[in-house]
Specification:
It is built from eleven helices and two strands, in the order ααααββααααααα. The protein is an all-alpha fold. It has one domain. It has a two-stranded antiparallel ribbon with strand order 1-2. Helix 1 packs antiparallel against helix 10 and helix 2 packs across helix 8.
């Protein structure tokens, strides 16, 4: 049996990992709900956003928070343009074409990041370099920062989608594009704004993950585990996505400790088990999308 301190430490590590996966998975779900497209390059948007924070921090001499804000704006603009200039042109094409295109985006972003920033891992200077002791358990402050960032961001998104005119218009466009269009909502612009929002959220995830994983061109593969979490929770359901990512995040450190031979694949084992028992995921989407 593990000592209670080790159980608590592994649980905190798992919650922080699950929150990081959840931040990335939010972008998957937001784009899917708006367009029924799964952006397989979303993890690479996270990686590129992390490098953008690094650039604003080191090249322009900005602190962590101003760099994060500038990177979110830059990546948000990039996400907007990706939809407005590229994704919008393949509406009505086969799912295979969309899959190949988003995978190609991932290769392009990884290659561009390698040519710009190099292929070796780098780190970002953050205000979370110290350690915190909770109940006799010492854990890196960067992990607690990820948990706090997830709570704050999810609260902000809830208020945005439930209280603001723009957020409500985005929800309307996602649920029924034709009805939203007849109500005078600029559906195309709303969809592009969803891509921008997803890219900005991915940038936040990349910045907060950087102190733990460091940044390199393969950081984006974390998006695959985030996608697994979204599938476990119920793809299309934001609460389900967060629940699925937290479940995978908490299971991973315990699985790696007790079964080191399956280290790195426990997330996919959980996904297969959940899909076998409950194919629709833990929380089913509460409405059917209409087009």
């Amino acid at each position: 049996m593990l000592p209670i301190d080790d159980v608590f430490r592994l649980t905190l590590i798992g919650i922080s990992q699950g929150c990081a996966y959840g931040l990335v998975a939010l972008g998957f779900v937001l784009i899917y709900k708006a367009t029924e497209v799964v952006n397989f390059a979303h993890g690479d948007f996270m990686m590129f956003g992390g490098f953008a924070v690094l650039t604003f921090s080191e090249s322009f001499g900005l602190g962590f928070w101003p760099s994060l804000l500038c990177a979110c704006i830059a990546m948000g603009a990039a996400g907007f343009l990706v939809d407005a200039l590229i994704m919008r042109r393949i509406i009505g094409q086969s799912q295979a074409s969309v899959f190949i295109l988003t995978v190609a985006f991932g290769f392009i972003l990884r290659s561009a990041a390698g040519m710009i920033w190099g292929w070796n891992p780098v780190s970002i200077d953050t205000p979370f370099d110290n350690e915190v002791t909770i109940a006799n358990v010492t854990i890196g402050a960067e992990r607690l920062a990820i948990i706090a960032a997830t709570v704050v961001l999810c609260t902000a998104l809830y208020l945005f989608f439930s209280r603001s005119r723009l957020g409500i218009a985005m929800q309307a466009s996602a649920q029924n594009q034709l009805a939203a269009y007849y109500m005078g909502i600029p559906v195309r612009r709303q969809v592009s704004l969803v891509w921008a929002l997803a890219a900005a959220i991915a940038t936040i995830a990349g910045a907060f993950m950087a102190p733990i994983t460091q940044l390199d061109t393969n950081t984006g593969f974390i998006g695959i585990k985030a996608l697994a979490g979204a599938i476990v929770g119920g793809f299309g359901s934001i609460p389900g996505t967060l629940l699925g990512c937290l479940l995978i995040g908490v299971i991973e450190p315990f699985a790696d400790y007790f079964f080191p031979s399956i280290k790195g694949v426990s997330a996919y084992i959980v996904m297969l088990v959940v899909l076998f028992i409950r194919p629709e995921g833990l929380i089913v989407q509460t409405y059917m999308k209409k087009v």
